[in-house]
Known about the structure:
Protein name: Glycosyl hydrolases family 43
Signal peptide: 1-35
Region (Disordered): 41-68
Radius of gyration: 24 Å
CATH architecture of the largest domain: 5 Propeller
Keywords: Glycosidase, Hydrolase, Signal
Helix content: under 10%
CATH superfamily of the largest domain: Glycosyl hydrolase domain, family 43
Strand order of the largest sheet: 2-1-5-4-3
CATH class of the largest domain: Mainly Beta
Family: Belongs to the glycosyl hydrolase 43 family.
Amino acid sequence: MAKNPLTSRYRHALSRVALTSLLALSSTLITPAAASAEAGAAAPVHQRQAPGSTVVNAPPGHSGHSGPLARKVTEAAEALVVHHADDVRGNITLPTSGLHGTQVSWKSNKEKVVTPTGEVNRPEHGAEPASVKLTATVRLGRAKTKRRFDLTVRPLPEQKPKEGYLFSYFTGEGYSNGEQVYFAASQGNDALHWDELNGGEPVLTSTKGEQGVRDPFIIRSPQGDKFYLIATDLKIHGDGNWDEVQRHGSKHIEVWESTDLVHWSEQRHVRVAPDNAGNVWAPEAYYDESIGAYVVFWASKLYAADDPEHEADTYNRMMYATTRDFHTFSEPKVWKDPGHSVIDSTVVQEDGTYYRFTKDERSNSPDAPCGKYIVEEKSQQLRSQNYELVAECIGKGEGPDSGISRGEGPTVFASNTTDKWYMFIDEFGGRGYVPFETTDLESGEWRLAENYDLPDRPRHGTVLPVTKEELQRLRTNM
């Protein structure tokens, strides 16, 4: 989401490798012989060399071609990135195309560890890290060059039981610092009683885009030792206009990553939505084992091609794209479109069935009695466009002792200790998050939890089960 129209044009890079700093890489670039400059060509992309890496020229004629094509393949090779090459913990993105329309192919000297298409099989827990050499061959016409990357693949972490929870959230547009990321820690395995971390101040603050973030979502990698936090790019506090931010809002999500939940990377401002989208709201993710990638989903209003100023009335649909690394994304697709506005989907899985929870964004009325409440659906396929209805009007009650007056931003998670699921629903304009629970996802029956003490003013966010060590680290360092 965003407050003002974006002025920069969308570079069609959802499925292209990002041209970011290569400082962390240990690599060798093998270039063809020096080529003559091409009139009017763009300046070449330069690389800061990592310690111990070298750039060398191959013998003359190595590429089979010299001149403008040779320079283009060299530039394309220099622009290739393997993110976190010195700390590989999951599948990696190996692009098959690059700058100037080049084609890229890959070879691995240890295909059982890293395949030529980027699937990673980490050493077992307790083993030594694996060193892998990847070679990219970049071609354009008869010209070609090669570039080598040295990878370090970390062994798998020890699997430990979950003995607590981390709660990430924002606190609302009514406060100057409310649209930033806050953390709270559970009191042991008690999912209903919490202590604010960092003295109740933001843990992460946006410096990009709208310089406000809402709806923070944390996902743990399937291997267990990498975390990604993604959030909405939006700041409503001040002069924000809800209609404007859905017509000319941000097409980006904000991304941070961590290996310990305490130390977080620099913020990334990543474009995911198409040109005809007016906004990107409440991004979340789920790892799809069938494709070895994360499915990232969000709500966007989509406008017709003949409405470039986004002036017509339309509605929010749920969109999705896939990624291995939260740098490079596939082209977005529509995931849920019931013909009226829906936002804030979240997904859990139990016994092979995916359960999706979404806010019905329609105004509550006799024609839409479940408007402004949560809908539950199920499917055997995560990316299916045909989920089956389980329940609607979730959270609706006759008063504060039986439910909520309206709800959005559901976060759903399993209890660490009992056969129970929790769903926190954000009663926007009211109490903020209110907890519900069930012992049967299939039933669609959720009851208001009793005796709870949540952080102060929590709004749309995530609850993540954590180990005893992770919980203690959070409490000690924040």
